[in-house]
Amino acid sequence: MRALSMLPPEDARGLVGLLFDLDDTVLSHGVLTREAYDAIWSLHDAGLRLVAVTGRPSGWGEVIARQWPIDGAVTENGAVHIVREGKGVALQFDGEANEVAERRARLDRLVETVAKAMPQVKLADDVHARRSDVAWDIGERERLEPSAVEELAALVVAGGARTTRSSVHLHATFERDDKASGAIRFVRNRFGDDAGAALHRWAFVGDSGNDAACFAAFRTTFGVENVRAYARVLSVPPRWIAPSKRGAGFAEIAKAIVSSRW
Q1: Which residues pair with 135 in a beta bridge?
Q2: Domain containing 105: what range?
């Protein structure tokens, strides 16, 4: 990881869009600060396309895609896309309705299995707004010991699901996309960019282990300072790292990108 101050201006000038995580990247302990929101507007005003890429629910994505100056959101770790359409939004899924429904039914059965085996583990408080995945709280309102987190992950894998972890949640899903493939699918469907163009012309900003796929896939990647805590689980770390954590670090990254484009 290189210091953000070393970012070559040509790397920023070649970008057409920015993909960014929410929790502990744009949000600071769940709060959208004025500094971070101003940074999103500055990126928008500089002409960049903006897409949130998050493990948070599609219900959240519907709200921010309507209210923030962004082009849409890739939610639930890649599975559900929220696209701005005029004054409203549209939801896009990977597959036909019957396939999506079958995967959801399998997920509901997995939730029941976990509840019986680990009744002390609580679902995330945003789970009611999710359509394609489920999340258990491991560090937001509840604190699970590392051994319990590993036990939970093992149950998910034994149930045939794929699991990822953010700084606050452990996720389970039967969907095919991760954050990177979901983001690429969004860019292709929304803007017509093929995968090769997307990987070189879009940048990604993140902070934790469930951003690993995007850090590995995209050419230009940024981490806020708190990504250092996850360096050992990232096969490919972000190329550039901000000096500050969370929303303040995101604002620093936005400033570096925007100032290089003029």
Answers
A1: 171
A2: 97-173
Residues 59 and 185 both lie in one domain: yes
What percent of the chain clears pLDDT 90, i.e. is strictly above it?
A: 88
Domain boundary among 173, 200, 218: 173
How big is the chain by its Cα radius of gyration, in Å?
18
Asked if residues 81 and 189 have their Cβ atoms less than 8 Å apart, the reply is yes
235 touches 216 (CB < 8 A):
yes
Residue 131 sits in the same domain as residue 198 = no
Total domains in the fold of the chain? 2
Q: What is the reported pLDDT for 94?
A: 87
Q: pLDDT by residue (tens digit) across 70-116?
A: 999 999 999 999 998 888 999 999 888 899 999 999 999 999 999 99
CA distance linking residue 99 with residue 79, whole number of Å: 13
195 and 250 belong to one structural domain: yes
With bands split at pLDDT 50, 70 and 90, how would you rate the model's confidence at 168? confident
Distance CA 131, CA 117 (A): 23
The C-alpha atoms of residue 238 and residue 213 are separated, in whole angstroms, by 11
Are the C-beta atoms of residues 52 and 76 closer than 8 Å to each other? no
Residues 6+ apart with CB under 8 A from 212: 233, 234, 235, 236
161 and 184 belong to one structural domain: no
